[in-house]
Amino acid sequence: MANNTKGRRDFMGMALGGFTALGGIGALYAMKRTWDPLPSVKAAGFTTIDLSAAQPNVLNVEKWRGKPIFVLKKAKDMKTDPRDVVMGDDHFLVAIGLCTHLGCIPAYLGDEHKFKCACHGGEFDASGHQIFGPPPSPLEIPPFKIDGTKLVLGEEGPEYQKMKADGLTV
Ligand code: FES
Fold it and tell me: Where does the chain cross the membrane (predicted)?
């Protein structure tokens, strides 16, 4: 009897452990799917990202000077914005992926076309504007230069300079 109870408890423990492990793998897979990096090259404070492989409404997270950088190609049914990086017909959100409240990394909810910050519930739309909760300002736009289909982070090209002059980068 005692053995039976122990056996059942062991089985339950193993089953729960299995679920936890599966959950962990699922979460990692989901993270990988939503956080795909694009082909990129890093050199001396600059990160060059090739945007030609970007898929609509799939968030890519790059790294620039130790910060996560969100790169999101907008699908045709998504709202464009003066903060967009425009390449030909394509519009991209390019923003530092840190919540402007206290610096957590928001998650992208593709179905809702918005970012949600798990720390205090702040939300940003797909153009980086704060739309709910405590964030006081939009997601910041890092200095960038457009070079054909490539984006160079860390260099101020004319498109970035114009955005900055219009007060759109912060
Ligand atoms: S850090 Fe994002 S809502 Fe507080």
Answer: 12-31, 91-109
